[in-house]
Amino acid sequence: MIHQVIIGFATEGITDVRFLSSVIQRSFEDVAFECKCQIEILPIQHIERQSGDFVSVVQQYAYKADEMGVMVLCIHSDADATSDRHTFARKIRPAFTAVEKTNEQKVCRNLLPVVPVQMTEAWMLSDRDRSPEV
């Protein structure tokens, strides 16, 4: 029996969508190959950008992800620094905690942070062979 996994992701900006979609897809496929059972990673589902502070935006993404049938929701936020420490402390952990503590039943609680230390646009410039067409 093949198990199917639906992955969703939300990004900071439109240029991140093209790049991160393929990175997330490949990463999950690589992990799936290591599993003992057969796993199919379905095409990655992008969730449109929401407005508001980061915590409330991530909560909105989690609700939308559940509506879309997403099983794992990847949340992107550039570190914009030499370390991801500040982004995790000020953005990721508070947002993920808010989703975890919500009383709502219809919310995706399987959250995965995607926090590049270098902006994804810099990745695309440095690795043209692995980057999508821009």
How many domain regions? 1
Taken from the alpha-carbon principal axes, the silhouette is globular
Q: Which strand order does the major sheet show?
A: 4-2-5-6
CATH architecture: 3-Layer(aba) Sandwich
Characterize the largest beta sheet: strand count, sense, and whether it forms a barrel.
4 strands, parallel
Helix content: 40-55%
CATH class: Alpha Beta
Helix and strand pattern = EEHEEHEHEH
Q: How many strand segments?
A: 6
Q: In angstroms, what separates the terminal alpha carbons?
A: 38 Å
Instruction: Let me know the average pLDDT.
Output: 88
Count the helices. How many?
4
β-strand percent reads: 15-25%
Q: Care to give the gist of this entry?
A:
This protein is of the alpha/beta class and 134 residues long. It has one domain (2-126): Rossmann fold (3-Layer(aba) Sandwich).
